[in-house]
């Protein structure tokens, strides 16, 4: 392989890695009708771990999840909560077994998550940042 071919291959690999990272940018969102406008990563993680059921201002918080195996779901739990998919399954198995709570409601797609957020104030979910519009408030970007 010539030097030029190696450079072109390296650039192509670099660009594909960058575009993959951009595609994985996620936004935690709520309905634009909710008074909450920001949240810390720890507060959001607590909501998704069942440790908190309200936003910092006291508004009820109802988390929803994308389907298990979704790359965005895996990125969310890794970046925001600091846990893998298997760690989250173990966490919720313990919580359910002890009767202390239920896992977040699961939806089929980011589009469905966004609709749920818009229709039911208080629901919080993570979606691809490209789906953000005036109907939702972004609480956190990762």
Q: How would you describe what is shown here?
A:
This protein is an alpha/beta fold and 142 residues long. It has a single domain (25-141), classed as D-Maltodextrin-Binding Protein, domain 2 (3-Layer(aba) Sandwich). The protein is 44% helix and 17% strand. It contains five helices and five strands. It has a five-stranded mixed β-sheet, sandwiched between helices. The longest helix has 21 residues, at 3-23. The chain is globular. Residues 4-22 have low confidence and may be disordered.
List keywords for this structure.
alpha/beta; 5 strands; 142 residues; globular; five-stranded mixed β-sheet; D-Maltodextrin-Binding Protein, domain 2
**Highest CATH level, the class:** Alpha Beta
How many extended strands? Answer: 5
Q: What do we call the CATH homologous superfamily?
A: Periplasmic binding protein-like II
Corresponding CATH architecture: 3-Layer(aba) Sandwich
Strand order of the largest sheet: 3-2-4-1-5
The structural class is alpha/beta
Please report the number of helical segments.
5
Q: Assign an overall shape.
A: globular
């Amino acid at each position: 392989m010539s030097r030029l071919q190696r450079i072109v291959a390296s650039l192509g690999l670099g660009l594909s890695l960058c575009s993959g990272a951009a595609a994985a940018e996620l936004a935690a969102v709520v309905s634009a009708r909710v008074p909450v406008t920001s949240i810390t990563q720890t507060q959001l993680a607590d909501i998704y771990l069942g440790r908190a059921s309200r936003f910092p201002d006291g508004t009820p918080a109802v988390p929803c999840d994308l389907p298990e195996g979704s790359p965005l779901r895996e990125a969310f739990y890794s970046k925001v909560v600091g846990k893998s998919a298997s760690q989250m399954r173990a966490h919720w198995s313990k919580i359910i077994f002890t009767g202390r709570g239920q896992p977040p409601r699961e939806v089929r797609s980011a589009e469905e998550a966004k609709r749920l957020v818009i229709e039911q104030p208080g629901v919080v979910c993570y979606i691809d940042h490209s789906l953000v519009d005036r109907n939702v408030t972004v609480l956190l970007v990762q």
